[in-house]
Amino acid sequence: MKTKKEKVLGNDRRDFLKLAGVGAMAGGAAVLGGAKKAKADAAEVPSGRGYRETDHVRKFYRTARF
Amino acid sequence: MPASQAVSDRTIGAELSEEDACRSALYRLLGRVLVAPPEESVLAALAELKGDESPLGRALNEVAAAAAAPQDLDREYQDLFIGLGRGELVPYGSYYLTGFLYEKPLAKLRRDMAMLGIGRRENVREPEDHVGAVLEMMAGLIDGSFTAPVNDFSTQQRFFATHVEPVAPRFFADLEKANAARFYRPVARVGRLFLEVEIFAFQLI
């Protein structure tokens, strides 16, 4: 049960980061060396994901001071 | 089997995820342009950045546009951070937290650096709590450059809460409003937006 919960939490975090614009940066970041140990596809723009609203993203933009 | 796969994804030392690689890259990028004005090769890399249509992604696109047409960055850097006597901003954690350089927050950072196997380069003479240096340390904690293994989120979270969160968001807000900021204005926006995302994301761990 705990394992399942952890999996969901981990995915929530990664999904949130992706939808908040972290994970969709291509190009220069890899050149700057930050992505050196990442998987081969790390520097590519995730195709077809883009910016979508999810509960976390909605909550984030409600609470953040943009 | 999916369950064991999920465990190994979150096991310390496992492979760096795409999102965490990007976090590390963003910290490194912000740190790099704050510790010194970016040279040609860094500007060329920054000009290649392509964000998505999120607020952070749009700010990254603004940095890319600014990096493609740089105007006297050395002068801008000088006016912002160095100046005659002092620049418009004083980019050190100790100064932000106490109003003075070389105070307790620096001692605390030095202790944590020693614990985490973070050294400083020989030729660096400024105090270690320069905002740019601290952001570079975050990059290294994420990508496994120091003793903390990849995916050690509790170490990342502790370091962030102690040394990044009390200083860097205020610093970026000040930088975004600084009179001398041109190239550094979208940089500051990226920093501010990214750290807001980070603060929220740490709550999901």
Secondary structure elements and pairings:
The complex is a heterodimer of chains A (66) and B (205).
Chain A: H1 2-19, H2 28-31, H3 55-63
Chain B: H1 2-9, H2 18-35, H3 40-47, H4 55-68, H5 73-82, H6 93-98, H7 104-115, H8 131-143, H9 153-164, H10 168-177, H11 184-202
Helix pairs in contact in B: 2-8, 2-11, 3-4, 4-11, 8-9, 10-11
What does this structure look like?
Helices cover 47% and strands 0% of the residues of chain A. Chain A has helices spanning 2-19, 28-31, 55-63. With 66 residues, chain A is mostly helical. Chain B has 205 residues and is an all-alpha fold. Chain B is built from 11 helices and no strands. Chain B is globular and about 45 Å long. The two termini of chain B are 23 Å apart.
Largest interface: A-B, 45 and 51 residues
Q: What characterizes the major β-sheet of chain A?
A: none
Rg measurement of chain A, Å: 14 Å
Number of helices of chain B: 11
Chain-averaged pLDDT of chain B: 91
| Residue fraction in strands of chain B | under 5%
What structural class do you assign from the helix and strand content of chain A?
A: mainly alpha
Largest sheet of chain B: none
Give the distance, in angstroms, between the N- and C-terminal Cα atoms of chain A.
37 Å
Radius of gyration of CA atoms of chain B, rounded to a whole number: 17 Å
Low-confidence spans of chain A = 34-51
Per DSSP E runs of 2 or more residues, the count of β-strands of chain B stands at 0
CA-based shape of chain B:
globular
> Which percent range fits the helix content of chain B?
55-70%
Helix and strand sequence of chain B: HHHHHHHHHHH
Structural class of chain B: mainly alpha
Low-confidence stretches of chain B: 1-9
- The counted number of beta strands of chain A is 0
